[in-house]
Write a structure and sequence with these properties.
4 helices; mainly alpha; single chain; 157 residues
Length: 157
């Protein structure tokens, strides 16, 4: 998990500059050693001078290539990480909304079931006429169907 400092543009700029400075200092050191070696060998040993300058140029080019490769990989990784983080956040929200809708549907069904049970009990006790009990059951079923069509309400169950 990335920290706030790692995402801070000023911190990223400082990291880029210090990395570049390290590469430049390394290249300057290699070039300085090569120049000193060539001066010490003098003009009489051309093969040695060629070998030293070739090696120095190889080291410098390898350093530059490594720096640019690492920098490109880091930038790509940062972008990919941000994209994955955003997508996982969207997925978590969608999953939460689906779970909330399921809970609301279960609560509504539970309420309708309790209502129908109460209607049945009162009908058996003679407190409600059979025709009225049938109308109440039909109304509860109709209300449940309308609630399913309307979908979950905002604000939770």
């Amino acid at each position: 998990m990335a920290t706030k400092a790692a995402r801070d543009p000023a911190t990223e700029k400082v990291r880029a500059i210090t990395g570049l400075i390290a590469v430049v200092v390394g290249m300057a050191t290699v070039a300085g050693v090569a120049v000193v070696a060539v001066i010490l060998l003098g003009g009489g040993k051309e093969e040695s001078v060629v070998a030293i300058t070739t090696s120095a140029l190889g080291i410098i080019s390898a350093s530059i290539t490594a720096y640019l490769g690492i920098k490109a990989t880091a930038n790509t990784s940062k972008e990919a990480s941000a994209a994955v983080s955003e997508k996982s956040g969207e997925a978590a929200v969608a999953q939460h909304e689906a779970a909330t809708a399921q809970r609301e549907a279960a609560v509504k069904k539970s309420k309708v079931d309790r209502l129908n049970k109460e209607i049945d009990e009162r009908e058996k006790k003679g407190q409600i006429e059979p025709e009225i009990a049938d109308e109440l059951r039909d109304a509860s079923v109709q209300a449940e169907e309308e609630a399913r069509k309307a979908g979950p309400t905002s604000g939770g169950g």
